[in-house]
Amino acid sequence: MEITGTIKDVFATQTISEKFKKREFVLTTDGSTPYPQHISFQVTKDNCDKLNSYSTGDEVSVDFNLKGREWSGPNGVKYFNTLEAWKITGVSQFSKPKPNVQAENHNFVNKQNDNDDLPF
Known about the structure:
The protein is mostly beta strands and 120 residues long. The chain is built from 1 helix and 6 strands; from the N terminus they run ββββββα. Strands 1, 2, 3, 4, 5 and 6 form a 6-stranded antiparallel sheet that branches.
């Protein structure tokens, strides 16, 4: 799955064990609703370093997997969901440059005037 939004917050890397670490961040999307959505994602292991290139306010596209798990505890069974990001790409703030219409019109007018029969 893929979603685009603005980074609202980036948290520090948490070391869970010698072989496992995770880092969370919050993405704000405007979506199609009138209220912005603040969605928490996590990255794990070597992907934690991917967040070093981004900061609060950056617009990014996030590819992620939806993961779910079941946990049995003393109060019964509970279910948890995780949005695990595996690719984060910056979204360009700049659009393609517009063509210079004045220069194109000038060239067009000059080409038409080349066929004049005037001596001067």
